[in-house]
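As a warm-up, study this chain.
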Amino acid sequence: MLRIAVPNKGSLSGPAADMLHEAGYQQRRESKELRIVDPENEVEFFYLRPRDIAIYVSSGRLDIGITGRDLLIDSGADAEEILPLGFARSTFRFAAKPGTACGLADLKGKTVATSYEGIVERHLADNAIDASVVHLDGAVETAIELGVAEVIADVVETGTSLRNAGLEVFGEPIMKSEAVVIRRTGAETEDPKVQQFLRRLQGVLVARTYVMMDYDCRVEQLEKAVALTPGLESPTVSPLHNEGWVAVRAMVPAKEAQRIMDDLYDIGARAILTTAIHACRL
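Now compare it with the structure written out below.
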């Protein structure tokens, strides 16, 4: 069986389980379950701390895992990203009291507090910045107030908690993170079970991004309509019973669907419908 590590809690857990369910895999019914077997799909899921998943995968005990890009890099594990999943997006940045620092060069000789010392130490080393790094587990905003550090490095979403602590971000982002599928570095790339798993997840990503659009239009407006809905290869066009009319079906980006419907209506298309896509293979 394919052995897969899944986050057992936190912001990664729920969306990962939802995506796996949409991809046709069984998921645990209770949060206390640490392992389930999906015999129909020949997959075994292990529910682990997100921070530990890269370590387990790098050991070869598990074939692949879902974790955050930031956690993968911070772990220093011998594992690599093979598919971004588009959820749990975040930005990792430096922050300090206003006027303390403007860029990386201002960190020289300072102490940086963070829960992600692996990421910070690598970033500082890559930029030849000589600074100290202190590891803290959570609530790093208080490190500056208590004199533990002059700078912090943390995940920033809205920046509200930093502003409430009297801090501001500075410099370029250290990295951008999201949920990713990982495997052990150098693992076999053409494993059929892994490829099937990735195809299923890619199908979910496409299904979430596109909708199916159907509409009727006159033949003389077909070229304009097709230009608006080119589909992935080309749209499906079928003649209608009423002469001079055709039915068109094409996949369109979900975020552009309403605008496309307006444009189609303006050129004379009618009976314009959109339907959700629940699964696909491209």
